[in-house]
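Chain A, query sequence.
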Amino acid sequence: MNGKPKYWLVTQCYSELAIIRRLVNGVDVSYSFAQMKEDGIADWDGVRNYQARNIMRDQMSVGDKVLYYHSNTKVPGIVGIVQVHRAGYPDECAWDPKDPHFDPKTDKLNPKWFKVDLEYVRPLQRLLSLAELKSNPKLANMALVKSGRLSVQPVKPSEWETIMQLEQLRAPSVLPSKKGSKRPRGSAAPPAAAAAVSDPAASKRKSARKTKYTA
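Chain A, predicted structure.
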């Protein structure tokens, strides 16, 4: 690791409901933070977005700190922390015709897609919901709040510090809602919930390399 660590956020399509899964070419590629904890280290493969690819290939370094965000859940939000275990290297699943992320336009001599290895660190003390993040003026310019769709995003040091402070605070019971919105803005999950998120489908997969959706 050279100098101070940089900060990032990765998003994972995960749902508590088994009927709601992220399928790529018929394969369930959802990957929960609980599965990340069980695996310890996971290769962040399957990214098929050029901007996210460039971040992993050119900017992420060993030791960088990464927020783990669950999307497509009842309460989307940041659930834990991982770190970069191995810097960017070619994503070999792009060359495998049997892999759901296969790309016939790339090859080993001219790799198009890259990945990093991430290592489990810890869960947050409580889930920080997207609604809570959006309600904090210090995070108004955070990439997750402004765009949200990119699977690998930069996080400014000041934003990281704000999030580390937020996890120490009690979750707000009521969050501001947009005018006309009928969606309840309830409080985030209790501390134990972030650590206990389960993924029954993922636990049944016996393959040595878990495939994840990070497109």
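Confidence is low (pLDDT under 50) at residues 17-26, 179-211. Residues 50-59 form the longest helix (10 residues).
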